[in-house]
């Protein structure tokens, strides 16, 4: 009885706050790199290799269950990085969509995947 009650209260907010803390810590280093007058291309490489990889770690699993507040928190980190670098970066929802599509395509193209049979052609034969 207690385990079912605790499952009802389960949310991804703890996971999201952990991810946001890690990403915010890396923003400090991004600022330090900018103060060292590194070009934007290097700053983007650092962002994609550290902050974006933290934000998108297993994003296909947890992002769909995030609250609006959690999404805003994560997007705020992306906006802060945009301001530091001085270029436009993809929204967190775009990262999620891209990763989901990539995962679905890999499942469709791998007949040995356990979920391969879940994807069937629509009557038009063009889309899944």
UniProtKB/TrEMBL annotation:
Q: Which residues form the Alkylated DNA repair protein AlkB homologue 8 N-terminal domain?
A: 12-53
**Pfam families, per the entry:** ALKBH8_N
Q: Which domain of life is it from?
A: Eukaryota
Q: Which GO molecular function annotation, any one, does this entry have?
A: methyltransferase activity
Q: Name the chain's protein.
A: Alkylated DNA repair protein AlkB homologue 8 N-terminal domain-containing protein
Which organism was this protein described from? Hemibagrus guttatus
Query: Taxonomically, what lineage is the organism?
Result: Eukaryota, Metazoa, Chordata, Craniata, Vertebrata
């Amino acid at each position: 009885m207690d385990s079912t009650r605790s499952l009802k209260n389960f949310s991804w907010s703890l996971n999201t706050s952990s991810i946001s803390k890690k990403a915010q810590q890396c923003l400090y280093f991004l600022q330090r790199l900018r103060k060292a007058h590194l070009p934007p291309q290097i700053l983007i490489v650092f962002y994609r290799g550290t902050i974006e990889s933290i934000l998108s770690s297993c994003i296909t699993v947890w992002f769909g269950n995030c609250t609006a507040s959690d999404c805003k928190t994560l997007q705020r980190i992306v906006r802060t990085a945009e301001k530091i670098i001085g270029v436009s970066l993809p929204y967190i929802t775009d990262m999620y969509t891209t990763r989901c599509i990539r995962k679905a395509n890999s499942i469709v193209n791998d007949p040995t995947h356990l979920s391969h049979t879940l994807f069937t052609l629509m009557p038009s034969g063009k889309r899944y």
